[in-house]
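User: quick one, fold this
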Amino acid sequence: MASSCSPEYAPAGDVGAALMVVDSQLKAIYDGKAETDPEQRQLREQFMASLGPDDVDDLLDGVCTLIYMFMQWLRRAYEDHDRDVIEYVVPSFVASLRMMPKSIRPEVIPTMTGLVVAAGTGLSPNLWRKQYGDWTGAEMNPLEATAFLLAEHINRLTDDHDFATRMITNALSHSSRGASSA
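Assistant:
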């Protein structure tokens, strides 16, 4: 019997917008401009301010889809080496979140960890989270950080700063080609 949190029941959301947000953060970190580029920060704030309620929901679903896709890639990569993705991703993920006390409040770390574990075990992170109520404002930065940290983990494993973004872009490209030919 399929779980009510199975990915096939989850909306994909706006994966493109979510990827743009994560990719801009990755580029800022790799370029050494994290939180120091006022133009980048202003563009980001303008983008977020332009979102309506439905757009925000689509973006949240898109970020959760990224988390799911990143964790599925990591699961396969670690299984190829007879390792458990939860064992090798979660401890460093939690440690990274704990090192960001200005952006990530300690009480949301268990929720973000739950999202990662849900995705790593084949469940939809957004449906897993939905069973506990609506998203809170305190979870927005940590949700973005979760997707960012997973993408960065993938990039470190592959020794390629663009691998995670390229992987999602390729998946989106293949899915849109399949949809347009149907």
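User: anything notable?
Assistant: Residues 11-176 form one domain.
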